[in-house]
Amino acid sequence: MTPFDDRLPAWGLATAPFAWGGPVASADFKTRPEDFVVEEVLGYEPAGEGEHLYLLLQTRDHNTRYTLQCLARQFGVAMRRVSYSGLKDRQAVTSQWFSVHLPGSTLAPDPAALAQQGIQLQRWSRHPRKLRIGTHQRNRFLIRLRQVSDAAALEQPLQWAASAGVPNYFGPQRFGRQGANIAEAEACLQQGVLPRERVARGRVLSCLRSWWFNGRLGQRLQQGLWPRWQPGDPLMLRGSRSFFTTQEWDTELQQRWERGDIEPAGWLPAADEPNLPPPWQVLLQAANMNPEPRPWRLLPEQFQVQWQEHGQGQDLCLSFQLPKGAFATCVLRELVRLRQPQTAAPPTAAF
User: Fold this and answer.
1) For residue 120, which of 58, 68, 211, 260 is within the disulfide window of CB 3.0 to 4.6 Å?
2) Domain span at residue 60?
3) Residue 143 domain-assigned?
C-alpha cells in the first residue's frame, strides 16, 4: 500500500466521481494539433516600454520548453532570462506570452527567424517587469471532438456543463506522464526529504497538494455535497484570488452564489491541514507552504457549441474560457469518453 492508496488515482481520474453521471458518448480527441487550440489571455496590456521584451507567439506541435530554447538562441541570452506565464500543450495550436530580459537593448524580434523554427509572432511590446508563473488571467479554448458517437445524448450534459459547471479537478497532466510525478512524490514521502533542485521540488509539492485536493473534491461528490458550501470552506470572489471565510451560510450569501459573485472552495493543504498524514506534514512544513484556496466548481465562460457534419459522422466544436490553473480536460470528461491516439502525451494546457 502506498501513501496515495486512500486517495484518488489522480493521474488518470478514471474512477473519480462525476457530477452529471459520467460521459454519455465517445469521440476522437486530438487526432491533429488543430483539434486543440488554446490562447493565453494576459489580462493587461504591456506598458510599451521597459527592459523586458514581451512576445505573443503561436506554435503548432511544440511545447513551451521548445519555444523557450528558441528565444534564448535568437536573442543570445541564458534560458533563465526567458520567462513565461503558463505551460501549454505540445499536441496543440497554442498562443502564449513570453518575456525576454534585455536590459539596455533595443533588439526587436525577427519574425522570419522565428518562423524558421515553426513559431509565428503575433504581437510584441515591452514592459518593466518580467512574466511570472500564473501572470495571465485565463485561457481561451477551441476544441474539436471528432466522430461523436451519440450527438443527441449530449444535449442535456452540454447544458449542465455550461450552466452549472463541472468539478474543478486537477487534470492528469498535473501528475506527469503515466503518473511519473506520483512516483517521485512517493519517494520523497518515504525519505522525508524534498528534492534540492527548485523545479523538481515544485513538481513534488504541486503533485502532493493537487492530489489531496482531488481526493477531498471526490469525497464531496460521493457525499452529494458538491458544489455547496460546508463549514470551514473559504468563499472565493469570482474571477480573483481573493477570499473570505464565514461561520454560517445565510440568505445574502446564497443570493451572491446564485448570481455568480462567490464560489465555495477547498484548500490546497499546508502542514496544519486536519487529517494530513505525518509524512505529508514533514514535507509541507519543510517547504513552509501556506494553504491556498481553489474553487470546488469550474464554470466555463462564453461556452459555445457547434455541430459540424464530417464524413459519416458529426464533430462537436466547443469554445470556452477557463481561469488559469483550470483544466479543459476536466470539462470534456463529464461529456465524452475520449479516444486519443496512442502516441499522444497527456495534455498540458491548463496553466
Assistant:
1) 58
2) 44-127
3) no
Query: Considering its fold, how many domains does the chain have in total?
Result: 1
Euclidean distance between CA atoms 223 and 351, whole angstroms: 29
In terms of pTM, does the model score above 0.70?
A: yes
pLDDT in tens, 152-201: 999 999 999 999 999 999 998 888 888 889 999 999 999 999 999 988 99
Question: What residues are labeled active site?
Answer: 89
Among the listed residues 161, 164, 204, the one whose alpha carbon sits nearest the alpha carbon of residue 305:
161
CATH for 116: 3.30.2350.20
Name the pairing type of β-strands 243-244 and 119-127.
Answer: unpaired
Q: Residue 311's pLDDT band (boundaries 50, 70, 90)?
A: confident
The radius of gyration computed from the CA coordinates of the chain, to the nearest angstrom, equals 21
In a domain, 29, yes or no: no
Residue at 271 is within a domain: no
- Give residue for cell 459547471: 165
Q: Rounded to whole angstroms, what are the CA distances from 45 to 56, 123, 351?
A: 12, 11, 20
Using the Cα atoms of residue 95, residue 98, residue 104 and residue 107 in order, give the sign of their dihedral: negative
DSSP strand pairing (93-101 vs 82-84)? antiparallel
**Residue 121 near residue 111 (C-beta atoms within 8 A):** yes
